[in-house]
Each structure stands twice: as C-alpha cells, then as structure tokens.
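--- STAGE predict ---
source: upstream dedup step, 1 unique chain passed
mode: sequence only
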Amino acid sequence: MNQMNVLFIHNNFPAQFAQLARFLAQQPGIQVAAVGAQSSRSIKEVKLLKYALNNVDVSQSHPFARRFDMECHRAEQVLYNLTALKSSGFIPDVIMAHPGWGEALPIRAVFPNARLIIYCEFFYGSTDRDVGFDPEFPTVGIDGHVGLHLKNAATLLALSECDAGIAPTHWQRSTFPELFRDKISVLHEGVDTARAKPSADASFRLPSGRVLTARDEVITFAARNLEPLRGYHIFIRALPRILAERPNAHVLIVGGDGTSYGAPPPVGTTWKSIFLDEISERIDCQRLSFVGRLAYEDYLSALQVSSAHVYLTYPFVLSWQLLEAMSVGCLVIGSDTAPVREVLNERNGIKVPFFDIEGFADRVVEALVHRDRFSEVRAAARQTVLDRYDLAGSCLPALSNFVRAPHR
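--- STAGE serialize ---
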C-alpha cells in the first residue's frame, strides 16, 4: 500500500474530525497530522501543531471587515504551521479543513497539489436560518445584513479552491449557493451507537443526591449552551404547565451558561437566568435541575433515564444531541424546523412547531401520561440512527473511503 499523508485543520481540533482522524491514524500506511488553535486537543498517533492569536486588535478595521481581518490573522498563524510541516517533510496528499475561521485561506499557497476537502457545516443567510427566524430577536438594520453576508467570505474562497466538500446533512448542504452544491457530498460524521444505547438499568444522580431512574418521570433538555438558537426560551416557558399537570415529574437540563451561537445576552446576565427568572415564581424550582456540561457517560445516563426528551433548534446546524438521544432510544419531542425534519418523522418521534409553547407542553404531558404507548416510537428512533448514522457501520467507512479516493 502506498504511503498517504492526511492533514486536518480545525480551530477546535478534533471536533467533527475526531473519529475519522483517529481511525485513519490507526491504518497502516497512513500518517495523520493536524493544525488547530490553542484549545485543540491531541489524539494518539496524530501530530498536532497549535497556533496562538495574541493581542490581535481589529477595532481600527471597518466593521464589515473585522471578521475577515481576524480570519486573516488566524490564516497567518496557520500559514506558519503549514510551512513548518512542509519543512519537516510532511507533504499532505489530502487536507480536510473547516473554512469557518479563515484557516483554509493559506492552504493552496503551501500545498497546491493536495486534494482539498472542505467541511461545509453552514452558510449564513438573512432569512429562515439562525438569523431572520425568531421575531423575539430580530436582526438590527441593513448593516447587520451586510455584515452577515460578509461572514461567508472565507468559506466562499475555500469553496472556490477546494476539490470537494462534505456536509453532515442534506439541509446543511442546501444552505450553500447552488453554484457550489455539486462539489458537496452529504456524509455525516456518525454516532457511536455502541455507546449511545438504551439501558433499562441506568441511573442519574442529581446534585441534591437524589437518584433518577427510568421508573421516574424525567423530562430532559440538552444543548452545548442554554440559548435561544437551541430553543431554551421556548422549552423553559412550557415548564409551568407541565410541572403543574405532572406533580411527580422532574426536569433535567444539560448545558452551559455561555453563548455558542447568535447574539450574547445583556452584559451581566445569561440567557439561562433571563428565561428562568420569567417562570421561577410559577414553578417549584426544586423539581428543576441544571447540571451544566457533563462527562459523556453521565450525559448518556441522563438520556437513558429520560421519559421525554425535548430538542429544539432554529434552522441551523443539526446538533449531535438529537441523534444521540434517538440512539439511546429517547422519546424525542422536537421542533418542526428544517434540520429536524430531515431526521424526525411521525414514526420515530414527535414534531411541534418551534414557537408553539402550549403544543410542547401538551406533547410532554401526553408522553408522561401514556409512557407505554411510545415504546415503538423509541425503538424506531434508535433504528433510524442505526440505519443512517451509525459510526462504525456506515459513516466512518464512508468518510474514510471518501478521503482516500483519488482526485476527481
């Protein structure tokens, strides 16, 4: 077998590339390297070069250009690492890069002959995506729309230079300009269904010391951070009625206090506290547990004891939480938005219009009252993931074959 060198470039490596990079690094004849920012984490047998951005000030740039200015500073640091790799004798045959932070900008200058694959996660737009969807958080002025359009600049440059792209879902592919869609294949990174699986014996210990099991009425909600884009405000507003009608139910909320996407909350506050304050006088807060971010096994335990798992998102990147919850066999009550519709249907879950607070309350209460009624839905949810998103069975082999394919 001929030697192959593969390079991954991602601000937060390994991120979406974790399983693929680990798998390729274990194959005979393949050497794997990676470039990422200081927050990146090492993987065994992958040579990782980190870069730092120190004291970068873009305040003197035009507001429209500040993001691209910062991306150019980042590209400069990546350029130094690429040059160091080349000097060390590592010449990649294939480069897979996320274009969202400008890291793909210097690739062709250093490695013009490598097969360049771009990870096409999302293309910004001003309507019916993360912006222009929720009237509670409107876009501010035409300047905001111009700035949003310019957030795509580095991605467009990468698309013009790449040999191929991959998008995790068909909907995410559809956000990109039609001009480039023929370049983009739909290949999800996959879910480890051997780990994310049902367990009738699972338990989850709350900070109070109480232990929840599948015999309890447990409502779960999970997001990287608790913020409007992932529907936290809709979910929290449905709780007073749910808890009033189900006096034995307990709510388990997984997620951080920061902001991953969209506008930050007013200074000195968090989205978590803003919306919790709205309802705190109408619920028994002892029946509501915010557990922050969890170790993966603890997170799976939370899903495994869930009676009803609520997942909401704006029309944006489909998060792993939905597929992991389905793989565990949760009864998912999800927002009827485009990314969710690609996965969730009438057989494997329940869809509710995103802004229908009463509808979410109705369906959660129904799920708790008639728990035995939904066993087939739970089984179908897991089967969907096994059939379409299983890491070992389909996604990882497909990604590996795609990376190792010759130039097209």
